[in-house]
Structure formats: structure tokens, C-alpha cells
Amino acid sequence: MHVDRIDRSIGELIDQISNAEILLPEIQREYVWKPTQVAKLMDSIYRGYPFGSLLFWETDEAPQTREMSVTGTGAGPLRPPLFLLDGQQRLTSLHRVFRDHPEAQVVFNVEAQKFQNQSAATQRDPRWIKVADVLDPKASMLRLTKQLLDANSALPDHEIEERLARIKGLRDRRFVMEVLKGFPYEEVAEIFVRVNSGGRRLGTLDLAMATLSTRWTGVLAKLQAEAKLWAQQGYADVDVNFLSRALAGVVLGRGLSVWSHSRLRQTEDVELERGWAVVQRGLRRLIPLLRTKLGLTRSDPLPSMVVLIPLVVLLGERDDEPLDRATSDGIVYWLLLATIQTRYSGSTDTKLSQDIRSARQTDPVGALLAGLNMEQSRAEVTDRALRGRTKESPYFFLSLLVALANGARDWWYGTEILPGHDEGQKLEHHHIHPPNTLDDRFDKGVINDLANLVFISTKANKQINGRSPADYLPSLDEQELRAHCVPLDTALYDADGYARFLTERRQLLADAMNDLLDRFRPELLDEVPAGPADPSAGFSLDLALYESRRDGGQMVFSAIGDGITWVGAAIMGELESAIDSARIAGIDSDVTIAGESVPVQMIEESLHVPIGPFLVTGTPEEWRAVFDRERLSSQPLSAVPSLGQPKPWSGERIKFPVTSTD
What we know:
Layout: E1 2-9, H1 10-18, E2 22-25, H2 35-46, E3 53-58, E4 65-66, E5 82-86, H3 88-98, E6 106-109, E7 114-117, H4 120-124, E8 128-130, H5 131-135, H6 141-150, H7 157-168, E9 174-181, H8 185-197, H9 204-215, H10 219-231, H11 240-252, H12 260-265, H13 269-294, H14 309-316, H15 325-340, H16 348-359, H17 364-371, E10 378-380, H18 383-386, H19 394-405, E11 430-431, H20 444-447, E12 453-454, H21 458-464, H22 469-472, H23 478-483, H24 498-520, E13 530-532, E14 540-547, E15 554-561, E16 564-571, H25 572-585, E17 589-593, E18 596-603, E19 606-611, E20 614-618, H26 620-632, E21 635-636, E22 654-657
Parallel strand pairs: 2-5, 3-9, 10-13, 14-21, 20-22
Antiparallel strand pairs: 1-9, 2-4, 3-5, 6-7, 6-8, 11-12, 14-15, 15-16, 17-18, 18-19, 19-20
Helix pairs in contact: 1-3, 6-7, 8-9, 11-13, 11-14, 13-14, 14-16, 15-17, 15-24, 16-17, 19-24
């Protein structure tokens, strides 16, 4: 075994990719770079910055491969292939730009010497030149220079030609390459894991997939075929990531963790085959159950797919006897409660391990419910629990389920509110009281309250056309309103009645949610007292972003609950930087909130941030979605309220999902 160190030009490497002389072993992750990252890579190479080395594997073993996310292949390989271990994102991005891939339309402003992805604005501006046009071997520098001069470029022609030539010369920039020779597949996989763990944070799913690929040849093809089957049936979220997590859960008897790949390496093929059969059998029993019991014909409304894994284990390891009603109802009841409680918003591995063990007990439903602390009470949703919730809350999912249970249809057009999986449509929702009909008495949180959202189509929303409910709701019959839990009192249909409208609709939604829960509640809970379905019920955390062009701005937090009133702020740039450090590199960091330095930690697959009286948890994607939401409604920095002397929180903290923030 040895390592060769060579260098090769970008142009040569791109040709090798086109000729299938560079391949991806199946241990590789998917291509994930965004257009902005591609443009930054081009900028770095153009400016002569370092752009890293590449790691390859040369072997006669011919391992299983996966497709590269590129188009346009050449005549075929002229030499044995190299398998790319490190550098996939960069090489794929470069191939896409050089070969004019439709999702990598990078353009260059010669005057500003700036790269960015093509947009409607750059298409209209002739001063932006598509990089692929310059890199085209047949491109005429004279014609491109004239094009820029005709666009009134302030640069002299020789300066334009020099900058275009630098673009043209990108093909000759050279990568340093390390080529592993004589290494067995398992050792290469271990190198892959170590190399990638040292760069972008390698998640437990990546570790599991890399290890499964070495232990079980062709596993990726099996997962992809199963994912395709479910995507065709509306369950596109039963993807390769979900399936690999479910398989590891069955085989290991617990959730994924940093040690999972070492345990998987010791697993025999027969155990993997048996585990895979359990996953397939479990899905073929669970998904029809969700369709029948809840009307859930597609997976995208589910806030979390992880909640399905214990149920896949339960049903996949069950014998072939028909499922009795008590067990099937109990399964649905647990799923609804686990969703309401955002069961896996923090410590996913720990909770999933506990739930898989419960799913294997003699009384799996009872054991699962005990894990939610529900064996002593029956879950009840209160109107107070719905106060301040938005579409990011798990109650949004429940409001869809109750609408489906009520037979709700699209207003005026009568179509189903949950589109068929083959129609290429997404679940839609719109405001009952359109924002433009509500005045300054109501902030964005109140306007976007869950109780003001209804599942209707864009077509129906256009029928509303920004009108007050007082104008359009009377045209609908009572059954159409009742199905969507809309109050019938017309005094609530104008802006003056909006606050009472929210109160009454929350109560209607809570009653409908309780009816849904009671439909599936196990008999063992019939005689126990009612208890809150959600531990965070009665608490709220409001976020408000204030920013300017010159300043990253401030995020102001307002917490309210039983005996709690707290306000604090953080510098937005510092907050985002700390969260990105934990999310991307797995590096714990700190951020100052209300004058207190608090840790930002990545624990398993969840970000934990102490904010006042709450320990706010959620996946990196959920945090990013919340930040994006706040940017859409940000206010000028000059409008930031006076918060007085910062008051760090000194008491116990309550776990609070970031998806429940307002």
C-alpha cells in the first residue's frame, strides 16, 4: 500500500469525469453545494487563492458506485478509473460550470470582477458574461470584448481582454492529488470517514452509510430502489437517509450515534439482510395504516420522519397475524403525541434508543406511551396550548389532520385539501383574515397565528383577493366553515373582532384535536385524569429581528409563561456564527444573550441554545428556517425597543422547540 502525489489541471480532471475515468464510490454523500458556494469557488480560483487538494483511490476491486451530479459525458474511459474520496463538491461544481449545467449558471461581471449565479437581473445586464461562454474552446475573446464595450463598459479593451483571459486560464489551474494504491475497501472507507470528519461535519447518517457500503455491497442500490417505490406512492420522505437510519435502528436496536459505524462494521451480512427485511415489512404495514386512520396520503406534512422508526420496528418484527384495532389505534395515538411533544427535537439518539426498546416489549404501545409519561394521564390539547403557535408548530400538522377528519374541502372549488401525490402540488395554507385587513394593533406573530390559517388553495385565496372575512365568509355555507373549524359568529369577521376570532377558533381547533386524540386513545387511559399533551403548553417565545444594511442587527427574544416575563437580545451576526460553527464543523461555541454568555451546542443531531427561561432545541434546518422566517418580517434597526438593563436568566430552563417560536 502506498500513496502517490501528483498534480493535474482542472481541464484534465473535467475531461476525466466526462469520460467516466473519475467515479464516485457508493460511500460518498450526495452533491449538496448551493449556487452561492459554486460562485465562491470560482472566485477563489480566479483570484489565485488556495482551493485544496483531492484524494483518490486506485483499485482493481471495482466497488459499487453512485452517479455524479453532472451532465454531458464523453466518448468513454481510455484508462482505468480513479475513485474520488475527497473533493466531490468542488470537482462536481467545476464540471457543472465548465459544461454549462442548467443548475450552475455562474456569471462574471468584468468591471467588478465578481462571480454570482445567473438571475433575472444579470440576464438583462449585458455586462454580466456567462463563465461557460468564456470557457468554451470555440469562444471568441474579440466578440466577447466587443459585447462588453457595446454595453458601455468603463474598462479599456486591453483590460477586458486580460480579465477574460484569466477566466479562460482557469482550465489550466492545477489540483494537487493524492492517490491511494493497494488499500482494501474497508480501510479506504475508514480513511474517507476520517478525512471528511476533519472538514465539513460528517453526520451520523453519513458515517452509517459509509460503513454500510463497505459491509454490504450494493446497499445503496437497495435503498434507492425502496425510496423510489415510496416516492411514487407519495412518501418521498422515505428516502435513502430515512431508510439507512431505520436499518441501523433495527440492526443496532438504537438510534444513530458516533459509535454506530464501528458497531455496523462488526455486523454480519445475515443480520443486515434480516434487518432490511424488517424495515421493508414495517413500512408496508405502517404507511397503509397512516393512510387509513389519518388520511395521510403523503409524507410531507409530517413534521418529523424519525417518529416513524420505532413503529417500523414494532410492525416489521411482528408476526403475520392481523393487527387488532386496539394496537393499531394505540400506534396512531403514540405517533400523534410524540409529534405534539416534538419527541426528537433534542437528544435524538437517546430518545430513539429508548423507543426502539419499548417497541420490542410484550406490550409495545404501553411501553411507548410510558416513554412519553402518558401512562398516568390522557392527553388534552387546550386553547392555551395553541396560543402563539404558527405553521412551524406541530399543532399545524394536527390542524391538517382534523380538517381531513372533518371532510374539509377547498373553498369554492371543492378539491381535496391534501393534493394527490402524483399531482406535483404541495400542501397549501392561507390567512382567513388577510394581513392587509388587519391594522397596527396586531403584530406579525398574531397575524400568522395558527388560528388564522386555513388549508385552501392559491386559487381559493385569489377568490378572497385580500378581502375581509366579513365580505367573503357569508358566501360559504355552515358546513364548509365547520369543517375548517371556523366560528360562525359574523361579529368576528372584521378587524375589530379579530382577537376574539382567534380565541374562538383556537377553542374549536383544540376541541377537534381532542376528538381526534380520543378516537385513538387506548382504553387504559379512559379512567385517568386529563393532562397537557405538550409540556411547553402555556409558554411562548417571540422572536423579532431588527437590522440595517450596515449592521447585522439584533434578535430580540420575548418569553411569556406561568409566572414568566422575560426579554433579552443577541447580536444576530454572533448568533448565526455560533450556530453555524456548531452546525457545520461540530464546534461548540458561545453567544451573548441578555448580557449572559451561553453555550451553543450540537448534541447528537440537535442544536441546543439557552435563551432566557428556555433551552431552545431543533435541527440545524429548523433553526435556519426560523431565521429565514424572521428575515422576511425584519424591522429597521432604529425601531429596536429599549430593553433596559440586561437580565440573565438564573432559574431552571424548560425545553422549548425552536419550531414553536413565534
